[in-house]
Every structure is written in structure tokens, then in C-alpha cells.
Amino acid sequence: MTIRMETAVKNRLNKLSKATNRSKSFLAAEAIQQYLETNEWQIHQIRAAVAEADAGDFATDAEVKAVMDKWDVGPD
Questions:
Q1: What's the pLDDT at 23?
Q2: What is the pTM of this model?
Q3: How far apart are alpha carbons 61 and 47 in whole angstroms?
Q4: Domain-located, residue 19
Q5: 75 vs 43, 63, 65, 72, CA distance in Å?
Q6: C-alpha 47: how far from its chain's center?
Q7: Within a domain: residue 75?
Q8: Please, what sign has the CA dihedral across residues 4, 5, 11, 16?
Q9: C-alpha 55: how far from its chain's center?
Q10: How many domains is the chain partitioned into structurally?
Q11: For residues 18 and 24, what is the distance between their CA atoms, to the nearest angstrom?
């Protein structure tokens, strides 16, 4: 796989590679893995929230007020 990146990013990757004594490939693979985990988690959560909304599973006014009161937020 070939990855094109801006010169500034490439320079940062080179510096990090030297500082950590890791290959650029290792660091790039680590970054891609973290990116995938974060985005897959977000997509999963969004899909679950949409399914709840489609099912009409919303918090009641009382539930919302309880959370707002717990965190001392809301209209004064």
C-alpha cells in the first residue's frame, strides 16, 4: 500500500520514528488501527442511536430534568 501525505506530516512521522525507535510503517499501521477503532465505534453508536430514535425510545421530560438537575445545568 502506498500512502501520499503532506511534507509536514511526513517530516513529523520521520521525527517520531527516530524518537521512538520504531519504523514509519509500524507507526502508520498503529495510527490506522486507532483511526479505524475510533470511527467504527462512532458509527456503531450512531446506528444504535438512530435505531432507538426510530423505535421512539426517547427520554421523558422527567428523565431529562433529572439529568439536568444532577449536573446543575439548564435554564435559571
A1: 97
A2: 0.64
A3: 24
A4: yes
A5: 32, 16, 11, 10
A6: 15
A7: no
A8: negative
A9: 25
A10: 1
A11: 9
* Residues in contact with 65: Cβ distance below 8 Å, sequence separation at least 6, in sequence order: 74
C-alpha dist (Å) from residue 45 to 32, 51, 56 = 20, 10, 17
C-alpha pair distances (Å), 27 with each of 32, 37, 51, 62: 9, 15, 36, 48
Task: Decide if 30 is inside a domain.
Answer: yes
Q: Which domain holds residue 15?
A: 7-70
**30-64: per-residue pLDDT in tens?**
999 999 999 999 999 999 999 999 999 889 999 99
Neighbours of 51 (CB within 10 A): 10
Residues in the chain: 76
